[in-house]
Please model this.
Amino acid sequence: MPSAQKLDTHHKALAINLDTSTFGSFAEIGAGQEVARWFLVVGGASGTVAKTISAYDKEVSDDLYGAGSRYVSKQRLEAMLDNEWAQLLTQLNETRGPQTRFFCFVDTVSARNFAGTNDSHGWIGLRFQLQPGGPANDVLLHVNMRDPSNVLQQEAIGILGVNLIHAAFYEVQIKDSFLEGLAQDVVPERIEIDYVDLHGPAFESWDRRALLVQLVRDGLAEAVCFPIKGSAVPPTEVLYKKAIVLVPGSFGHTDPIHSQVHLRLLNSAIQELHQDLSETKSTPAGFFCLTAAPLTSEEPTPETPDMLRRIDSLLAAGGDVLLFRKPELYHMTALVNRHTQAPVRFAGGLSLVIRAFEDIYGNLEGKLLEALARLFAQNVRIYVYPMPAADLREWLRGTSFNGWEWSETNEWVSASHLRRTPPLGHLFAYLLASNFLVPMDPPVEG
Model:
């Protein structure tokens, strides 16, 4: 058993090799055999490595793991795990089973191609026993690779794989310790983990949905997705090549009345974008957008149970949810534009636009101008829905935002009737005239 001190990748692999109770196989596709390589070069590999395989050829891969699924997908990962695990037990359980904790590490990865034109991401899985002869436990991860070269991405996958195996055998008792060990030296600077799925008695006390929230809160992911149908999926699964509507908000009121108001706003924006694209195009995908960070420095960071409460209310209303790490709209744009080149539309009331204009953006050299340039850089617009004048006035009283004026129509204020004193008002007027801000009618009831 390794000591409690923090080990580097070399010593993690060596500790596993010197643990006579662990033995397993490696199947890696798409980023070399960097995980297996660590165990082969640190010494004592014969005590750990039963087999390594890298079925790069598609026909070979199909013969081993079955045809019909995408090669970099959860379905292919699960097929790899099932095949390798069955083979490992068939070949070794009788002779080594009573004294061995078996494991299978598998990955299927799309590392950066020569031209740099692909989406660098992958699926990583581990099946393992905590006791000889014990039940199997699974960890499935979806990762996005941030290194600029294929070689560096391969290296990062190698470190993450060693971290995962070590954390599963020696740090799985405590969720925070497991995540810390998994992320060591590689997350979030080099790899982002935006999906985790767990199975088996080792994780029976873990709240899987809370774990997804924690990925965002701890900075391991820029965003995670909670769909209304089925279990959680990586954001790329729901964003890929689609036109997108995003409805940001804090959504602190979780009663059904407020939830239905939010849903009408989302549906109205989806319908508007669908008409803009033409009826022949597929219906855009729409998402409520929450953030795990406070909207202002004065607000406390939302706790995980509170975040799940808000997510559940939005799911119950009938909308998919994206939970983002950062609150700024341009961060949301950047995340979505990783996965689609199609149009993106934000939808919200006047308070959304006012907050976007009044933010300090102290982390950006170009402050507001840079934030707006990032926000609107790639076919992005904001559908701005009117607010009752009384609600707008009350909301502004609770802020430090000054210089906003408006005229009313039937006690409502639209974006076209909202004004800001110069010089910021000139920029606001320009965005309106250039159709970056699109004034909308109120969402229809029902």
